[in-house]
């Protein structure tokens, strides 16, 4: 996500990983420490050195309503 912040933009990035072990294989044991590449210096004004490791606890699946039923948002009175 991007937010204009005066003379620069702030970028909020979300990445999804198969498992916490996969994150550790990439980032090391401290998964709350942000990882950067050398080429990032060309783009970044500053760095947030902290990463927030959130866990996905469920998923939402879109399903079509049964024939003849109405979505609750479309029901009146």
Considering the chains and any ligands shown, give keywords for the structure.
77 residues; little secondary structure; 10% strand; flat
Provide a short characterization of the protein structure.
With 77 residues, the protein is largely without helices or strands. It contains one helix and two strands; from the N terminus they run ββα.
Radius of gyration: 20 Å
Give average pLDDT, whole number.
Answer: 83
Major beta sheet, strand line-up: 1-2
What is the terminal separation in angstroms? 38 Å
Structural class: little secondary structure
Helix content: 10-25%
Shape: flat
Count the strands? Answer: 2
Order of helices and strands: EEH
Oligomer: single chain
Low-confidence spans: none
Main pleated-sheet profile: 2 strands, antiparallel
Beta-strand residue fraction: 5-15%
Number of helices: 1
What is the element layout, followed by pairings?
Layout: E1 2-5, E2 8-11, H1 20-27
Antiparallel strand pairs: 1-2
Structure description:
The chain has 77 residues and is mostly loops. It has a domain at 1-52. The chain contains one helix and two strands. The chain has one helix at residues 20-27; strands at residues 2-5, 8-11. It has a two-stranded antiparallel ribbon with strand order 1-2. Strand 1 (2-5) and strand 2 (8-11) form a beta hairpin. The longest helix has 8 residues, at 20-27.
């Amino acid at each position: 996500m991007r937010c204009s912040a005066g003379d620069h933009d702030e970028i909020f990035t979300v990445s999804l990983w198969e498992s916490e072990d996969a994150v550790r294989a990439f980032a090391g044991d401290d998964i709350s420490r942000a990882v950067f590449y050398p080429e990032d210096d060309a783009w970044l004004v500053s760095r947030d050195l902290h990463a927030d490791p959130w866990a996905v606890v469920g998923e939402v699946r879109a399903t079509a309503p049964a024939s003849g039923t109405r979505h609750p948002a479309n029901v009146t009175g």
